[in-house]
Amino acid sequence: MQHLSRRHFLLAAGAAGGATLLKGCSINPPSPDSLSPKAQALTLSSLTTPETTSVKLGYIAIAESAPLIIAREKGFFARHGMTDVDVSKQASWGSARDNIEIGSSNGGIDGGQWQMPMPQLISEGIITKGNRKIPMLSMAQLSTQGNGIAIASQHAGKGFDLDVSKAAEYVREMKANGKPFKAAYTFPRVNQDFWIRYWLGAGGIDPSKDIDLIAVPAAQTVASMRTGSMDGFSTGDPWPSRILRDKRKYGFLAVLTAQIWPAHPEEYFAMRKDWVEKNPKAAKAILKGIIEAQMWCDDPKNRAEMAAILGQRKYFNVPSDLLIGPYTGEYILGADRKTVKDEKLAIRYWKDSRGSVSYPYKSHDLWFLTESVRWGFLPQGFMGEAVGVINAVSGEKFWREAAQELGIASADIPPSTSRGIEKFFDGAEFNPENPKAYLDSLKIKTMKA
User: Fold this and answer.
1) pLDDT given for residue 242 in this prediction
2) Contact at 8 Å (CB) between 357 and 144?
3) I need a labelling partner for 442 at 20 to 30 A (CA). Which of 21, 53, 85, 120 fits?
4) Alpha-carbon distance 5 to 409, whole Å?
5) Radius of gyration of the chain (CA)
6) Is the pTM of this model over 0.90?
7) Quick one: how far is CA 387 from the chain centroid?
8) Rounded Cα–Cα distance for residues 244 and 226 (Å)
């Protein structure tokens, strides 16, 4: 009965959303008439009634957070008994980390959106105050793709595209002349730091020696380029595309992460382990809401409505039409600003070319930790501990149980915790059965004993 109710709602909501044509570029709340119906509450059994109806989840205003926002706005959380979900905007990734440390009982958060491997680093006390260990559970992948690397216009024609090897000598000359190329990511030693490092390293540019890399909050990246204090930045949509809107053309979108690693894992949903252990049914109710929101987000009929919801001042605070392109795979790429439209480059939340987006593969966790060793963020000896850390932080059991209780088709529930061999644009391969071979194959790395 629960599965039939979910299917009936999703079909009805999708049809209503598809009939909507949103006007203009307003960042004010959309008209109620332009929104599809919210999800209907289910009649819950003793096995599915959550222990609490309240939780506080944090998010950053980038496309990866959409499932959390949509689950709140479209009633998917409430549908499963989580009627008091506070989806709270975080000023930065550092703020999110600080707030998960103190928890909601002290004014912080219980969980939310994370770059990887933040849940593992927080659990191990590597990035927390006083190295305090805050056990976490990584429970779902929120999205795939949807990130890009923007370059300041003054560097047009210098070789900054997918194959950045053509820019290598230019970058090293900048360093030699005392004005090193400066690029930003939104938090050190995680996703958006890894994306720009991988791209540069594949082109023969050593990101640890040839350029200066710093952390800048996502919402400040465009402003930094406008002032001339930044040569490039790596972050999630819609920020790489925003700079293209400025008529003075401060920068251009050089490369998409979807080109670097097609169908790559992006950000994750993770919670404090103590909250999940105290409220296991509530944790699964949250996951059910996220899963249903991911399916709703991936329905093409809902794109315009999703963009209108996310674009509101209280969420992303950007014109809604700025968000449509990434969902259709339409981007303006390169210094010559050519429009490229390819669905394979689009953001996805539920399914992509490799299958499940939402399921939290342990093999992906291993890549992030292996890449951490590659750049010296973790010592080489950590590879012997990686599997143990991954198993301790993995919440895939909760995802699997939530999906089964929802009635998700068995074909959409991965049979293995590994997605298998991952292939990158430069020909490199990551086999989770042999991460050492991946490390050995990489020419540029900064490994530490």
Assistant:
1) 74
2) yes
3) 120
4) 15
5) 21
6) yes
7) 22
8) 11
